[in-house]
Amino acid sequence: MRQVTGTTFRLTLLGSLALLVACSQQPAAEDSASTTTAATAPATQPTEAGIKPAPRLANGMVNLGLAAGERGFWGSSGSIYGRGRLSAATNLLIEEVPFQPWAKALYEFRQANNEKDDPHSRCLPGGPTREIETVNGFEILQMPELNRVYFVFGGGEHSWRVVYTDNRPLPDIDNPDTIPVYMGYSSARWEGDTLVIESNGFNEKMWFTQGGLPHTRNLHLTERFSRPDFDTLNYELTVDDPGAYKKAWTGSFSVKWNYTSWDGSDAGEIHEYFCQDNNRDVQHMIGN
Amino acid sequence: MNRKSRIKAGCALLSGWILAVVAAVALAQEGHPLTGSWSGSRIVDGKSSRVLMVMELQRDQTISGYVMEQGKRAPLEAVVLDPQTWSVSFTLAAADSGLHYKVEATFEDMGSATNRKLIGKWTEGNASGDFMVGLN
Q1: Structural domain boundaries in chain B
Q2: For the whole model, what pTM was predicted?
Q3: How many Å apart are CA A12 and CA A24, to the nearest integer?
Q4: What is the fold, at CATH topology level, of the domain defined by B3-135?
Q5: CA–CA separation, A127 vs A163, rounded Å?
Q6: With contacts defined as CB-CB under 8 Å, which chain B residues touch A119?
Q7: Using CB atoms, which residue from A103, A117, A204 is nearest to B35?
Q8: Model confidence over B8-27: pLDDT tens digits?
Q9: How far apart (Å, rounded) are the C-alpha atoms in residues A173 and A185?
Q10: ipTM of this predicted complex?
């Protein structure tokens, strides 16, 4: 049963990817009523204060991704703990995170060893939050007619994540047929202009944030994405994992829009990068 | 369905459930450092005895699991992890299990998901010996 479920899951992933590619190749003119990213409202203009408002899709919904006539992708981010730069001033300091004793000791162990055992440095997926934190940027593609939002990550293992907006329930993680996965199982809703994603079913083969915050299979994430202006994506994460934390806790950071490619050109496109290709990270991960 | 068939079906269901549980915890590597399936040996009278062990963190922060050795299976009792020293102790004491000993061990290469080990001693009365398992 587990093998069949796994095969079904892989087929579903492949099918979804095929849909993603097919949809991205549809000319906008063929579907003028579509609310995909191809059917966005005209390019946004800066306000008198010089702040560009968040773009919107043709149906008025906020567009968390690239707008027609624009270029770029989401780039630098902050952390859900600690303060300063892009990390929220209201974040918990690391010493305030409500770790279970073993999780605190494990986090400190990882820090004391310069994160030498980080699976992400071995090119394994890092879960949704870690992928957002990873360099090389990401894109968000809203496809409301498919009840999906895709996250396409340029860093690490160059992976992607699908979030469903069809009100599907999250799986029962105690059901042996629920295979724990890196990105978790995600179901999202819109609260005004905020995309709220609930996820569970994570495996324990990754570090779900930079720095190595521990988690267990009980991890439940609530992510809130909003775009107060064109150049800013606000990300708020509530971590609920009684296995690793004494209570649920929340942190947030901003992500900035990146107009240039990493080679400095103004194409504003994510370049091809695969961690697996010529990975020289591991040999340097020797700790103390 | 006769009694024999019911017993067969029950055994198949139970076996499937055990395999599913083992497979589920075998995936665990970066969470609680004890969670997962382990294999190794216990030295008894100078001879190596193959040990298989499954451990899993429960929601109440206790660790449950079992040891399989010499065709016997014993639940873990009183599993204690001291995260300050990364030392571990547990006992096998169930009366009908056929396995009765205490293990005191510490982690080696604790941060590694591929090379993590528990190395220490087992004791039962005046008998004792080495105990070593690695995370599968």
Answers
A1: 3-135
A2: 0.81
A3: 18
A4: Lipocalin (2.40.128)
A5: 13
A6: 30, 113
A7: A204
A8: 665 555 554 444 444 444 44
A9: 10
A10: 0.79
For the cut 80, the answer to whether the pLDDT of residue B106 exceeds it is yes
Tokens encoding B85: 């020293």
Name chain A contacts of B33, Cβ cutoff 8 Å. 102, 106
User: Is A242's Cβ below 8 Å from some Cβ in B?
Assistant: yes
| Radius of gyration in angstroms for the set of CA atoms belonging to chain A, rounded to a whole number | 19
Outline where DSSP puts E strands in chain A: 73-74, 138-143, 148-153, 160-164, 185-191, 194-200, 220-229, 232-240, 249-258
> Nearest-CA residue of chain A relative to B84?
A105
State the SS3 of B10-79. Answer: HHHHHHHHHHHHHHHHHCCCCCCCCCEEEEEEEEECCEEEEEEEEEEECCCCCEEEEEEECCEEEECEEE
A69 sits in the region (left: phi over 0; alpha: psi -120 to 50; else beta) called left
Encode pLDDT of A179-209 as tens digits.
999 999 999 999 999 999 999 999 999 999 9
Structure-token match 């005209």, residue found: A42
Nearest-by-Cβ selection for A243 from B16, B27, B59:
B59
